[in-house]
From TrEMBL:
Top-rank taxon: Bacteria
Domain Nitroreductase: 279-427
Gene3D superfamilies: NADH Oxidase
GO molecular-function term, one example from the UniProt record: oxidoreductase activity
Organism: Amazonocrinis nigriterrae CENA67
Name of the protein in its database record: SagB/ThcOx family dehydrogenase
SUPFAM superfamilies, alphabetized: FMN-dependent nitroreductase-like
Cited InterPro entries: Nitroreductase, Nitroreductase-like
Length: 428
């Protein structure tokens, strides 16, 4: 029975893993039935081939670039700058470009597989602003992240609701990283008229907008809503509806987040090294139980403590279970404060559904929250997760996201009443 007071919490509760639920429903799928992971608009749309020597193109390209191709159990995978639960990549990127030299003002779909932008809508006096920040007109870029949920629900069923939002947060993190590298600020926006945009962008029930990132100059000016509807184009080769996902997306899309003042992070990365980090970011598949230094650990913490560039806010609290950090007592910490001393590595391995990465890493992190807006909270958790990846990899420390854990048992281990939104492992 769903609670009335916070529907987000009810949907989170409905997708919990427990020892029993995982035994009874282990998510085995026939890999040959995987829906396609790349959206391609019909060939009659105009396309711009991305040239990485052009800084505007390179800014957009690096938000979603394919960085490694590999074959696993006869299935080819194209891994990208953004991680994704099960490498299923439900997220798509659209970008409105206005007043940018050499580009037609319009809304483009980023066609990741072919390195191009597809112009799906030309602007006149209309634009995405009217759905997002109604009294402003942006010269520059408005990125939209959408989720093609079936790519993830195909395997993870109802729990894919979480992975869609977390993946979306990571993708926002990838946009932030590319923006930093191209000397641009961004602002993340979570509270806007997503439902109207889904209709006007022709997504039907198969794709939904989760967030927006703006980079550009805002002018006081009214823009109209899109004067024409974009035709529906299916982002997968086949589709099976999931009523739970559709209902819970819609209910959580209208939840208002907490508000805060916009503040930009102050990042100080060496640009060449940071570019290499973005390009070579990977999830660690096996840790070797090696220690990391306290300095490295604190450096990663510093990245997490940087302000989030958004006015729509949800507080994420981070618990860290330290197993192997030189000069630190192993134990459970809330932030940097030791709550329980002890070696809990076997326990975190078990809690994360017996995944060795959560046992053999140097630190297992758990993100918890008492949110107002579930969609925002999950995406902020993913955004912070991307910082953990990049901050760690920048220091030559390995990292992996962990979306699979026994929810209630983890909550009891942490001794918190807040929902456990995400976990991560760092180490060597
Ligand atoms: C939301 C989310 C949840 C994930 N959960 C797990 C997990 O439970 N266990 C794991 O080994 N990897 C997990 N991963 C890592 C993905 O498997 C990985 O990102 C994907 O295979 C692509 O590889 P890459 O990150 O090296 O590009 C997760 C990633 C994301 C973004």
């Amino acid at each position: 029975m769903l609670q009335k007071n916070n529907l987000g919490k009810a949907y989170h509760d409905a997708t919990k893993h427990s020892y029993l639920s995982v035994q009874m429903n282990p998510n085995y799928v026939d890999a040959s039935t995987q829906p396609s992971t790349f959206k391609v608009y019909p060939k009659f749309y105009r396309r711009v081939q991305l040239n990485v020597n052009n800084p505007v193109h390179s800014f957009i390209w690096l938000t979603s670039a394919i960085t490694l191709e590999k074959v696993y159990k006869d299935v080819p995978y194209k891994l990208r700058v953004n991680p994704s639960a099960g490498a299923l990549y439900p997220t798509e990127v659209y970008v409105q470009v206005r007043g940018v030299h050499g580009m037609v003002d319009g809304v483009y779909h980023l066609e990741v597989e072919n390195n191009c932008l597809t112009l799906i809508y030309e602007l006149i006096d209309d634009g995405l602003e009217s759905y997002i920040i109604p009294t402003k007109c942006i010269s520059g870029f408005i990125f939209l992240i959408s989720c093609v949920y079936y790519r993830s629900s195909w395997k993870y069923q109802d729990r894919s609701l979480r992975y869609c939002f977390l993946d979306s947060g990571h993708h926002l993190g990838a946009i932030a990283a590319s923006a930093y590298l191209h000397s641009k600020d961004i602002q993340l926006i979570f509270d806007f008229d997503k439902l109207a945009l889904n209709t006007d962008l022709g997504f039907e029930n198969k794709e939904f907008i989760t967030a927006c990132a703006i980079s550009g100059k805002a002018q006081e000016k009214q823009t109209r809503r899109l004067r024409l509807k974009v035709p529906f184009v299916c982002a997968t080769d086949y589709f099976e509806a999931n009523q739970f996902i559709e209902t819970s997306y819609k209910a959580t899309a209208v939840q208002q987040s907490y508000q805060q003042q916009l503040k930009q992070p102050q990042l100080k990365f060496d640009r060449d090294k940071f570019y290499q980090t973005i390009f070579n970011r990977r999830s660690c598949r096996r840790f070797r139980k090696k220690c990391i230094s306290q300095e490295e650990y604190l450096y990663i913490w510093q990245q997490l403590e940087q302000p989030l560039p958004t006015e729509n806010y949800e507080e994420i609290e981070i618990y860290s279970v330290v197993h192997r950090v030189e000069g630190m007592s192993p134990g459970l910490y809330k932030g940097k404060h030791l709550l329980k001393a002890g070696d809990f590595s076997e326990q975190t391995g078990y809690l994360c559904i017996n995944q060795a990465i959560a046992r053999d890493c140097a630190v297992t992190l758990f993100f918890v929250s008492d949110y107002k807006s579930y969609q925002t909270a999950m995406q902020i958790a993913g955004f912070i997760g991307q910082r953990v990846y990049l901050g760690s990899n920048y220091m030559a420390i390995q990292c992996s996201a962990i979306g699979a854990y026994y929810d209630d048992e983890t909550q009891r281990f942490l001794e918190t009443t807040k929902d456990v939104l995400y976990a991560m492992a760092i180490g060597n």
